[in-house]
């Protein structure tokens, strides 16, 4: 396809209805999520109560605001999400939501979740999309010129972002631990053998293998089935079943609901227009002719670079040696969803260089339970905690203390293993883009025991 044909294809006018539906769904989902966050007391637990917050690489300057400001920020997120849903002062609402949400998520990396990253990406993109030119209060009240059509790419970019999440989650499952060992599902499923109907089958290895392979096939192929009109109804039924089962089994919050609703954007323009006519019976807003984007070349170049980053960045792990799940070099921001069972225990020691006196750190003095759990199995968090302890005890009058740790980690059922040399002075190490060669290699998994698969029979 020539560039001119490609540009014609992606700028072709299409109905705004799918984009308006997504705007409404996204806004309502974010309102419920934020309300749930406040209701559960997580503003206090996550951001206010902890003494220490673990930072994202490059965002060490981000710190939690005062308590009143954090609650105000979440209140602003509630208002902004309703503004997005209703299409009222839409661009301002999308901008405020993106800034507030992304700021709160950058406060502490121990609360990182793939779908939080997805929300930040989507809310950023929506600032620039004309999702409010119809079926919105902005269009109804004349705040924006109403229109029936937008450029094709403006709907397609949301579909592509959803497709990336699914497809990359499927690609990530193409590894021997997931497919040949059925891990971690062989560990997780038996714990849910009380589930109605499916539960008894979870005791058998065959079920874990079937779920592992089905999960890989589902994630990899579902975007393509959603794109085609003939397979779309069947594909959406599979989406509902898949997210219903995973949501029941693994208690992963709003993610299954958000994804189940969001993929409706794949449905045809006619389907969305019918829904809007049913929901807004009697709604009539005079629409104007379709107008192409201003400064199109700059805009298209920006979005091409943005999408190139989204497509290429998850592959950065290929430049790192060793077991990705063990070192976690390139693990985050690559759509590795529910892929490993990993846990650790970390005992830290502080040593006075001058006197030689050494003592054990009580992690509970500095970290909450969740932070300690996450820190004990993630190398960058171990280093950040070590540097925090170094600075803390230096302020207590100990000159340049030595910080070492005995950390044992288990990955996908492996025996708990020493993660790195226990005599290593962690305060001398710094996290970077370079490989974490200071870690011991991951212990091997036992060979797959294929005869166990058929114990079901």
Describe this entry's structure for a reader.
It comes from Thermonema lapsum. Keywords: Disulfide bond, Lyase, Membrane, Transmembrane, Transmembrane helix. The protein has 457 residues and is of the alpha+beta class. It has a domain at 341-451. The protein is 50% helix and 7% strand. The chain has 18 helices and six strands. The strands form two sheets. It has a four-stranded antiparallel beta sheet. The protein has a two-stranded antiparallel ribbon with strand order 1-2. Strand 3 (342-351) and strand 4 form a beta hairpin. Helix 2 runs antiparallel to helix 4 (67-86), helix 4 packs antiparallel against helix 5 and helix 8 packs antiparallel against helix 11 (205-227).
- What can be said about the biggest beta sheet? 4 strands, antiparallel
Classify the beta-strand content into a percent band.
5-15%
Judged by helices, strands and strand pairing, the structural class is: alpha+beta
Number of strands: 6
Distance between the termini: 52 Å
From N to C, what is the helix and strand string? HEHHHHHHEHHHHHHHHHEEHHEE
Query: Which range best describes the helical content: under 10%, 10-25%, 25-40%, 40-55%, 55-70% or over 70%?
Result: 40-55%
Strand order of the largest sheet: 4-3-5-6
As residue ranges, the low-confidence spans are none
Number of helices: 18
Q: What spatial form do the alpha-carbon principal axes imply?
A: globular
User: What do the pLDDT scores average to?
Assistant: 93
Radius of gyration: 25 Å
Keywords: Disulfide bond, Lyase, Membrane, Transmembrane, Transmembrane helix
Protein name: Putative membrane protein YphA (DoxX/SURF4 family)
Pfam family, one: VKGC_lumenal_dom
Membrane topology: Multi-pass membrane protein
């Amino acid at each position: 396809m020539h560039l001119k044909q490609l540009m014609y294809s992606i700028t072709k006018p299409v109905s705004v209805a799918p984009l308006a539906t997504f705007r409404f769904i996204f806004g309502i989902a974010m309102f419920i999520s934020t309300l749930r966050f406040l209701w559960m007391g997580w503003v206090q637990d996550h951001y206010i109560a902890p003494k220490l917050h673990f930072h994202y690489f490059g965002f060490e300057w981000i710190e939690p605001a005062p308590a009143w400001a954090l609650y105000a920020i979440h209140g602003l997120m509630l208002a902004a999400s309703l503004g997005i849903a209703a299409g009222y002062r839409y661009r301002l609402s999308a901008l405020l939501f993106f800034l507030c949400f992304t700021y709160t998520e950058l406060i502490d990396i121990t609360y990182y979740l793939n779908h939080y990253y997805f929300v930040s990406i989507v809310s950023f993109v929506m600032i620039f999309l004309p999702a409010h030119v119809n079926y919105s209060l902005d269009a109804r009240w004349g705040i924006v010129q109403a229109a029936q059509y937008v450029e094709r790419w403006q709907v397609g970019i949301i579909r592509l972002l959803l497709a990336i999440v699914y497809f990359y989650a499927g690609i990530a499952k193409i590894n021997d631990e997931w497919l040949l060992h059925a891990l971690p599902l062989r560990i997780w499923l038996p714990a849910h053998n009380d589930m109605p109907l499916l539960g008894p089958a979870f005791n058998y290895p065959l079920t874990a293998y079937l779920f592992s392979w089905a999960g890989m096939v589902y994630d990899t192929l579902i975007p393509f089935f959603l794109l085609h009109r003939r397979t779309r109804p069947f594909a959406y039924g599979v989406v509902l079943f898949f997210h219903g089962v995973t949501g029941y089994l693994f208690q992963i919050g709003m993610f299954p609901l958000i994804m189940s609703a969001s993929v409706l954007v794949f449905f045809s323009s006619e389907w969305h227009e019918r829904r809007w006519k049913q929901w807004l019976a009697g709604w009539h807003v005079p629409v104007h002719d379709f107008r192409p984007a201003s400064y199109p070349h700059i805009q298209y170049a920006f979005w091409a670079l943005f999408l190139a980053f989204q497509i290429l960045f998850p592959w950065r792990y290929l430049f790192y040696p060793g077991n990705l799940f063990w070192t976690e070099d390139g693990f985050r921001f690559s759509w590795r969803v529910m892929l490993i069972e990993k846990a650790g225990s970390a005992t830290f020691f502080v040593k006075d260089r001058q006197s030689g006196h050494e003592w054990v750190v009580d992690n509970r003095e500095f970290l909450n339970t969740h932070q300690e759990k996450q820190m004990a199995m993630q190398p960058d968090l171990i280093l950040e905690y070590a540097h925090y302890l170094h600075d803390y005890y230096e302020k207590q009058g100990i000159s340049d203390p030595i910080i070492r740790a005995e950390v044992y980690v288990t990955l996908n059922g492996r025996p708990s293993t020493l993660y790195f040399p226990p005599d290593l002075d962690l305060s001398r190490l710094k996290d970077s883009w370079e490989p974490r060669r200071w870690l011991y290699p991951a212990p091997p998994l036992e060979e797959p025991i294929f005869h166990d698969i058929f114990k079901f029979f």
